Amino acid sequence: MDEGLPVVLVIEDDQELQQILEDALRDGGFDPAIAGSGEEAVTLLRGFRSKYRALVTDIILLGRIDGWRVARVAREIDPTFPVVYVSGAAHDQWPVQGVPNSILLTKPFAPAQLVTAISQLLNIGTVGGFNSIGSDKGPAQT
């Protein structure tokens, strides 16, 4: 891990997309930490929460814990923890299942959109409701 850079916990089980996300985050000035499953991510969050500045999670993951649950665990630990969901299939459930003040990136999306989303959440703390990027449905407010 790079000293001084904000560490972003990334949960993505697709190896190719994982590498793209990792590269985008590094290029954007973040230090990505990769978890291969929801269970691994929850363990890392509970054990080392102060180490992570944001969470990027796919929704459908290998194992028993999905991205919705990982984000809820992160918010139990810190109610303002920045969360970015990335999904190609479960985005329609986001207004109901997603945590408030999160951002959804619908696959496929440009890597720069991920960096922008994380920067937005870190810079202003919250984004007021739900924000969807890369979706033809536009922002969904709660």
The helix/strand series, from N terminus to C terminus, equals EHEHEHEHEHE
Across the major sheet, the strand order is 2-1-3-4-5-6
Count up the domains.
1
Supply the helix-strand structural class.
Answer: alpha/beta
Terminus-to-terminus distance: 36 Å
What's the average pLDDT?
Answer: 86
User: Please, what is the CATH homologous superfamily?
Assistant: Response regulator
Task: Please give the number of β-strands.
Answer: 6
* Proper CATH architecture: 3-Layer(aba) Sandwich
Strand content: 15-25%
Q: Quick one: CATH class?
A: Alpha Beta
What is the CA-atom radius of gyration, in angstroms? 13 Å
Number of helices: 5
Give a written overview of the molecule:
By secondary structure, the chain is an alpha/beta fold. It has one domain: 3-Layer(aba) Sandwich (Rossmann fold). Helices cover 37% and strands 20% of the residues. The protein has 5 helices and 6 strands. A 6-stranded parallel β-sheet has the order 2-1-3-4-5-6, sandwiched between helices. Helix 4 links the parallel strand 4 and strand 5. The protein is globular and about 35 Å long. 35% of the residues are buried. The C terminus is likely disordered.
Secondary structure layout plus pairing:
Elements: E1 7-11, H1 15-27, E2 31-35, H2 38-48, E3 54-58, H3 67-77, E4 83-87, H4 94-97, E5 102-106, H5 111-124, E6 130-133
Parallel strand pairs: 1-2, 1-3, 3-4, 4-5, 5-6
Helix pairs in contact: 1-5, 2-3
